[in-house]
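--- STAGE predict ---
source: upstream dedup step, 1 unique chain passed
mode: sequence only
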Amino acid sequence: NSTVNYFKSVAATYKVWLNEIVNSFIINPKTNKRMSNGFIEGKNNYIKVIKRIGFGFKDFETFRAKILYTNSKNKLPYKY
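--- STAGE serialize ---
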């Protein structure tokens, strides 16, 4: 009986996350690799590291410029 409840729980989890599970198997035709949000997660982590190293920037524009500079392959960030 406890095994049946376990499988019901697993089935319910699959039902809730079905779209996300299926999307994890989609292959990008250009690269022939599975799609992932790893690139974006890496960028978010990099921004957090910059924030931590900067001990909290007093000015948002300075923080933004630092992020743009370090992610632009040593090109100066442009102004909007």
